[in-house]
Every structure is written in C-alpha cells, then in structure tokens.
Amino acid sequence: MKRFLPIISIPALVFFALSSFPTPLNAAPALSLSVDEGSIIVRKPFSIELTISWEGDAEQYLVETPRLKLPQGITQSGSSYSTSAKENMYFLRYRYTLCAATAGTHVLDPVETNYWERNAGEAQTARTGALTFKVSTRAEVALTRYGIPGALLLIFISFFIAASVLSTKKKKAVSTAQTDGIAMEEIIARELKQCRAYKISGDWDNYLKQVIATRSKLPAAEKDEKIRAELRTLAERVHYGGYRPSEDEINLIERQLEKACASAIPGEEIKS
Length: 272
Fold this sequence. Notes:
Elements: H1 10-19, E1 30-35, E2 40-41, E3 46-55, E4 61-63, E5 74-86, E6 89-100, E7 104-108, E8 112-117, E9 124-127, E10 131-136, H2 138-201, H3 204-216, H4 225-241, H5 247-264
Parallel strand pairs: 2-10
Antiparallel strand pairs: 1-3, 3-6, 4-8, 5-6, 7-10, 8-9
C-alpha cells in the first residue's frame, strides 16, 4: 500500500517561514551631536545641535532632557528646542548657542540621556561621541579663506600701519627740530648783536666775555674748548693787563665766531 505525503503549496511555505521569526521591535532612541558648518571665531556666537531620533511616534519613548558638559573657555548664552516627524521617525532637536573665549581645539564630552520605552519600567541610556571643534582668530579665518591674497593683504596693511607710524614720528621730529632751530637762531642773532655792539664801542673786555658766552651756548661748544681757552687767556690779558687786541686778532675772533654760529644752524642765514 502506497503512502501519500500531503501537498503543501510554495506560498504556504513562505508564509510559514516568515511567521517563524519574531517581529522586530522599534529602533531605540539614538543621539547625534553636530556643530554649525563654517568657521568658529573667538568671541563670536556659534551653535551646536543635539538630535535624538527613534522609530515610532512621539509617545513611543519618554526622554530625559539632556545636559551639556562644557569645556573650559566655552560658555552657553542660549538654547532652543524643537520636534518633528518624518515618515516613521520622530526627532527631538536641542540647539545650544555657545561662545569661545580663546582660540584652539576644544573637546565637548559625550552627551548622554536616559529614556523609558512605553509600557516598560526600566530606564535605558543613550549617548553621543565626543565632539571636537576648532576655534580660530579672525586673522586665521581670513588667511584660510583668502589664502595667499589674504596673507599679502594682511602684510600690506601691517606695512602701511608701520609706515604711517614712522611717518608721524618723523614729522614730529622734524617739527621739533625746526622749532629748536628757530629758537637757536634767535639766541645766536641776539648774542651776535650784543658782540657787535661791544666791538663798535671798543669795549674789548666785555666783547671777549660776550664772545666766550656765545660760543658756550652753541651745540658743538665742547669741540671748541681749545678756541675758548685761547679766548679766556686773551680776555684775562685785556681785563687784568690792559692789553688792547689788534685789528687782525679781532677779525679772526669774529670770523671764527660767525663760522661756529653758521655750523649750529645748517642752511640758515644768521640774522643779526
């Protein structure tokens, strides 16, 4: 007697195979942390975003509010919160406004939060990875953004500022020198006028004293010490010995005095 096996259709076999596997559960909440694209500049606000997403609706999970652990030199000035859904996914987004006090590389520690699945009593924990970001100065950003032209521009600006400062100092020095030159010219003119008055009157005693005093007021007086020593000797002979200088001696003294006065103010004519 022949035995017959039951005939089972292929669709039935497929259904049986699929039904033997457990139904997959909804994906648990996942956290991600990101920083705004672009450059982060010292003392200029920037934003980072923490996103919590899961498969299901808003009531699928109860999520604890996450907290940031900011590194030294980073401060928080504000935050915002939003929710959204797309197809079968639900999103919680936390946006934080931060500010960096110093340039350099900063690391934000991993952010973690607890969550509870609906109709389940035990809390679970989800966390992000650490977030590393670089804070730059404005000069570094300009150099990165504009490359060699930016660097050349910064160099040009630096040279321009330096040249302006040097030019200002030079003008100030020239102005001071001109003022000093005018004052010296007035002093010399006054001294020469007094010397000539004594010469005209024949008062050789006071004439020689005035010549010595005039030469001592000139900028290069220390270079004329030998001449002034000779003048003092002559002045003593006139004052104590009654000596009367010759016309040649007086003319030589006068030429030497005018030459010394002219050297004190180059390019200027001494007006008596």
